[in-house]
Amino acid sequence: MRYSYGITAALLAGGATISLITGYPAGAQVAQNDAAQIERVVPRAGAPASFADLTAQLQPAVVNISTKQRVTVNNNPFAGSPLAELFGNGGGQPTTRQATSLGSGFLISADGYIVTNNHVIQPDGRAQLESVTVKLVDGTEFPAEVVGRDPQSDLAVLKIKRDQPFPFVHFGDSSTARVGDWVIAIGNPFGLQGTVTSGIVSAVQRHSGMGGAYDRYIQTDASINQGNSGGPLFDMAGNVIGINNAILSPSGGSVGIGLAIPAETAKPIVEKLVAGEEILRGYLGVRIQPLNEDFAAALGVPVNRGELIQSVQPGEAGEKAGLQANDLVLKVDGKEVTPEQNLSFLVANVAPGTRIPLEIIRDGRRQTIQVVVGRRPSDEELAAQNFDPNAEEGSSPAPTQGGQMAQDLGLQAIPINAQIARQLGLTDGTTGLVVTAVDPNGDAATKGIQRGTIITSANGKSLRTVADLEAAISAARGEGREAILLRVRAARGPEVTIAVRLSARK
């Protein structure tokens, strides 16, 4: 289950069928949500008097997913300092610890392909994935192979094998889902396998506020909790219309606002992962601003139509096409830019190298610009490109790592590279981490750490990666310490050592 803190929120971690190559003859197994099967248990008019028959039909295709991860912790108290060579290991040998995670998934083919969330199987920070185990509803367990992962959409595909065909379900067409439609969610919240909850579609194309090309979800009031991540959201035709992914909550538990990745988003990505194809996304290289009432009034255009370009990245597709700051983009390849269909989403779904028209307003005049869409960089590359030490927190992309760091220190940070060093006015070769976000209620904030603060070492150990800091946190925890020493400085300030208390574990 992933967590979103925008509202102090917790983020979890007869439709069209998905076409897969299987090792079984045609007709060897019928999908659990085949239309003929579902018509026997759900009346055409809507929800049944009970969800029991529908659940019994679909539940065999929903699985429990557990992982084992290996975490190596250096227990040498002098590691990374000049005393390390003088005192050798200092009596502390590196130790390996094991961590686990739980989540949900569902079978999409008779030969064992499984869809889940990437964050269900992706270890945080310094951990390495050792194994993935899939358990069916009858308790049978299978070792699973990771076929493919796509962190940007938070999707992953696994594969299990046996001689007999597996029960499976089809993707449906989420574009036909309507607010008020009945849905059921099946998954493994808190490890309680096969838990079924029901509700309605509360909203479609819902934005969570986290930004990005895939920040558009089906919202439901069906109860979703930690461990539901990766599980299916079914409509009353038994189709998978969503993949349960997140919740918004002030407490971390379900309060009736669950978010699921729409099937129309997930299906083409899953097909590519199954086929072993690389996921390529379009990219313009521009920073954008949604059009609120003030911007709309200043530009003399309707609100909630179009997005304003704030800046253009040098050398990227937008600059090459002649896009400029203050251009208002109204349409992408004939499709209107709206809050539900934003510029990032539209461009990301265009193949790199494709030439498309952009309809813009510049200096009060409408015009069309032709652009050859570029290839979207990785999340890490984007975080480095867009880091602005003077920007407010949340205006730059959040780093993809740092789960433990956020939990224990109330910080998010990314490694310093050459580009960030130039932005901060640092000398070439400077190493460490630069803070991108700070919990204002945490001890780090009270000690003066803010966005743009540079962290060079932790407990005397030099830092180059997020994993280095998380290893130092784990070592401090293992020694029973309640705080950690950080060597920090502002971009142009003196370097000082501060002690930051580790958050209490619940």
Automatic annotation (TrEMBL):
Pfam families the UniProt entry points to: PDZ_2, PDZ_6, Trypsin_2
Domain PDZ residue range list: 285-346, 413-491
Family the entry assigns: Belongs to the peptidase S1C family.
Catalytic reaction list: Acts on substrates that are at least partially unfolded. The cleavage site P1 residue is normally between a pair of hydrophobic residues, such as Val-|-Val
UniProt cross-references to InterPro entries, sorted A to Z: PDZ (IPR001478), PDZ_6 (IPR041489), PDZ_sf (IPR036034), Peptidase_S1_PA (IPR009003), Peptidase_S1C (IPR001940)
Location(s) in or outside the cell: Periplasm
Origin superkingdom: Bacteria
SMART domains reported for this sequence: PDZ
GO molecular function, one term: serine-type endopeptidase activity
Keyword Hydrolase part of the UniProt annotation: yes
Sorted UniProt keywords: Hydrolase, Periplasm, Protease, Serine protease, Stress response
Name the record gives this protein: Probable periplasmic serine endoprotease DegP-like
EC number: 3.4.21.107
Chain intervals for the UniProt region annotation (Disordered): 380-404
Natural source organism: Croceibacterium xixiisoli
GO biological process, one term: proteolysis
